[in-house]
Sequence to fold (138 residues):
Amino acid sequence: MKKLRFIAVICLGIVLAGSCGGSKEGLEPSDVVTEFYAALASMKFDTAAEYCTKDSMNSYIDGYKKVYDTNQAKGKKATEAAEKQLAGIVVTVTETIKDKETRTVLYSLADIYGDSKDKTAILTKVEGEWKIAEIKDR
Fold:
């Protein structure tokens, strides 16, 4: 339940952080991770998928869609409460590790309650752009 609350907070909080858009060309791996979460928070699931390797992150993105759909089904009050909670979500990149073919981005997601979760994203280049291939908890 705590994990679901954390995901809900992340989704709706990033919505208020701003919209995602613009060119993905030339983004550093850490920027790709940040923009990915901004897209998820804005409920721009198709945009979020553009930051990922083809089909690699479908289940991760689907988790955010499910939380969004659940809040919508509960009504306006539930959606507004979740948006308020998520307003303070922060993505903090702590390190980027370079390898020949990949980049590993270490980061944390923090909510307004002070709860944070350490994550790792593995990125690879696809047609000259860094794309997220995998995200896992640390």
